[in-house]
Design brief:
InterPro entries: ASCH_domain, PUA-like_sf. The chain has about 130 residues and is mostly beta strands. The chain contains two helices and eight strands, in the order E-H-E-E-E-E-E-H-E-E.
Length: about 130
């Protein structure tokens, strides 16, 4: 299946139905199922380095105002998360790795993979002779 690397939080927005357009500086003649792979960059609320859904690439239009291509997409399936090393442009991933699952199964499978940044601990300040250190 053709695959595309996208920032992880954008992939989660696609799954939630909030993102229906992917913006690119380039176009392709390809239309149809497209595996969405989160980039390895750790972004809060995403599963970095995993493919988590399949969208349908319906159409592409160039928009002069933004000087970019609008890739019109719709969610087809959530899948069992698959560790994928992303690449530039479109790339291929073996079809046998892609297994559609229910939303409930997906939530259970993806939860441990979601990146949540750790909060920095506040340093304890002490007062010495009336001055905080």
């Amino acid at each position: 299946m053709k695959a595309l690397s996208v920032r992880g939080d954008y992939v989660m927005d696609m799954i939630a139905g909030k993102k229906k357009i992917e913006y690119r500086t380039w176009s392709t003649k390809y239309r149809g199922p497209l595996l969405m792979c989160s980039t390895a960059k750790k972004v809060a609320g995403s599963a970095p380095g995993y493919a988590t859904c399949v969208v349908n690439l319906k159409s592409i239009e160039y928009v002069d105002f933004d000087e970019c291509y609008y890739w019109h997409i719709e969610l087809l399936n959530v899948i069992k998360p698959v560790h994928v090393k992303g690449q530039l442009k479109l790339f291929n991933v073996a079809d046998e790795l892609i297994k559609p699952i229910s939303k409930e199964e997906f939530d259970k499978e993806v939860a441990p993979l979601i990146y949540q940044p750790k909060r920095k601990k506040k340093r304890k300040r002490i007062e010495i002779n009336g001055v905080l250190h």
